[in-house]
Fold:
Amino acid sequence: MRLNITEPSLFFDTGSMNVTLVVITILEKPYVMMRYGKNYTGNNRFYGFCVDVLRLVARDVGFDYILDLVPDRKYGAKDPLTGQWNGMVEQLMKYKADLAVGSMTITYARESVIDFTKPFMNLGISILFKVPSTPSTKLFSFMNPLAFDVWLYVLTAYFCVSITIHAMAKISPKERSNFNRSSKYFVKYLDKFTLRNSFWFAVGTLMQQSSNLKPRAISVRIVSAIWWFFSLIIIASYTANLAAFLTVERMTTPIENAEDLSSQTEISYGTLESGSTMTFFRDSLIETYRKMWRNMENKKKHSTFTSTYEEGIKRVKESNYAFLMESTMLDYVVQRDCNLTQIGGLLDTKGYGIATPKGSPWRDKISLAILELQEKGDIQMLYDKWWKNVGETCFPRSNTKQSKANALGFDNIGKYFITLPYYRR
Structure:
């Protein structure tokens, strides 16, 4: 009769033994970074968020570790043609490492060949794009508060009302006569509401200015009162919207979400090669994401996929390119570069975990340690340390508490000077 042991951890107590584990990682700010000075050797070469998490976990679980980089500098993805894995996943599958630590996403495909601990950070996929530049001020931009068709309607109403006032004054005898009390006769006057004066009366009302022309006939007064009320509403609406145009910078973003990105051809987009984001688009059943994957796959590989996050971020800054990346990394970049921004929300939800080979006795122990660190707030304090360092973050002017309305310069109001008449003697 043979004894079958199904739980390898029963052979030893990992908390009391002097065990040294081989841990592989990949360089990625701010998760894992390297010091290149001659004075740094071994584990001291590495620093960052994940390095701090690993140190706390090793302290609580009770093991030592040797930290090194994965040879091919990849997280791990399965080749759909050969079925072979690469990156840190391959190293764990071949038992060349005991743990893999970094910004490694827990996915179904990876979970089927290796094990993951409880996630120590939750995230999703989002779109990194550069902040659109403010459009240059045009000469006739003071007409922007009202749409072009509204201006046409106002001009048409102006002509119609002026002609109507002139016609009604022409056929109304009261506009050309007046009762003289001293002589007790009607005295005829010249017609004041000529066609030219009618146009002048209407434009004076529109500009909220009085004139010597005073309608006497009831019909002319009714038309004038309606025109006055119309002018009041139009001028009030124009003034209110003009204030918004002068004080608020309106930036036109060419894309607002993933649907906009997939339905256009001017902006190219891509993601990290051999990463979970690439796998997400490749295996997705949602039509929008399938369309984006076909677009990325049909283009040249070097113009769509990047080998590092730094390469993708640089491409966003220098060209018309959108980079699909994980939200935690995106937050880190955006908080340090005010020329970059996040477009839309998260496309999915997932988490980062510490990877182990299948059946590793360290998985459950590390998971318990991660849960304890989360409950005590240690991981949140590490996040604040690496993401919200005041000395490294930028502060957009529009989001600061001290921001005030900017003074209007000549670029804002200089165009109004063209409305002033120019006289020559």
